[in-house]
Amino acid sequence: MALPFQYAIRNLVRSPVRTIQMIIGSAVVMVLLMGAVAFQQGMQRSMRSSGDAQNVIILGAGSEESIQRSEIAAASAAIVAANAEGLAQFMGQAAVSPEVYYMGLVNSDGFERQAVLRGITEQALWVHQQVRLRDGHLPRPGEILVGARAAAYLDLPETALATGALIRFEEQDYRICGHFSAGDSVLESELWLDLGDLMSSSGRESLSSLALRLGRPDAFEEVDLFCAQRLDLELVALSEVDYYGSLNDFYQPLILMAWLTTGLIALGALFGGLNTFYAAISQRIRELAALQAIGFRRWMLIWSLIQESLLTTSCGLIGACVVVFGLLDGLNVGTSSGVFSLQFHTAEMSVGLISCCLLAILGLLAPAWHCLHPPLTSALRSQS
Questions:
Q1: For 106-120, how does the pLDDT look when each residue is reduced to its tens digit (9 = 90+)?
Q2: Dihedral pair phi/psi, residue 112, rounded to 5°
Q3: Overall pTM surpassing 0.85 (yes/no)
Q4: All structural domains of the chain with their residue ranges
Q5: By CB atoms within 10 Å of each CB, which of 59, 84, 201, 260 scores lowest?
């Protein structure tokens, strides 16, 4: 007959301070592990939402890795629209959106922040079809259209970016004309201006990029061939999916650092748990030996100790869930390219559950072996 479950529960309350320490330690580890998974999943989700398989980004040759450094002649938009084949048509015009991408300081309600600004024309909605106007209209001269996550990216209150408010950029005031959403993509972190306004304010005479929408899925080769043939324009065509995929690869070291930090903390917590278990079980060597003497097998004792450990880490898992769902779920995380939110779903909860079991078992086995492997006669004479 195995030891009753009540025995494991009773042992947890014998040393409440030690039990609370173990619960807090395991909860911290699980919060970090689930947070690291949510961070990775959130960034990948944002990049996947940003890339449309039917969209193409044309950049200046040599600037394939950064739209910010790209420069192409302003006349390229009309040339590409008139000559490139395979483009989608809207109202008899090719879906070509000339754009300027610019990082600059903006001042709103006394707060100065580094913002991502994009100069656009009305053709932008032909290409970026995930964009939806929540209110207002596309920016006219002297106006700015605000993305759904721009306030989080700029760390400003929502009221500072309300419709009708003023934003100062390069010594000029722009009135907010509305807000847009873009399906959780990085576009939601941007401020959109009239193309002419941004080129004038930033002192640019060239575009950053052209955004194109293909008329059919296999038309990318035709656009790519056009760019290769027009050497005078110095253009490079990239699939939007590939471009944002490369951005995701760029952030992999950051994700790796998050995992490394989490792993080191988890390792420290594991060793801390080992010490705590050693301290707890070493005081019970004679008790465990006495249980063996009256007929309980060692595997029964190990199973009872595992129950104690699982109860402790399960309490830690409950605490971790309270933290992640109460404080971290939906939290906006900013990067240089935009903002994404932490979301805790099946994958994150699975990591929490697996780490709960691993912490309970790995943290217990070594102390249990240390206390149960001595001969019964030696254990009964132990001073613990």
A1: 988 777 888 999 999
A2: -105, 125
A3: no
A4: 5-49+251-380, 73-233
A5: 260
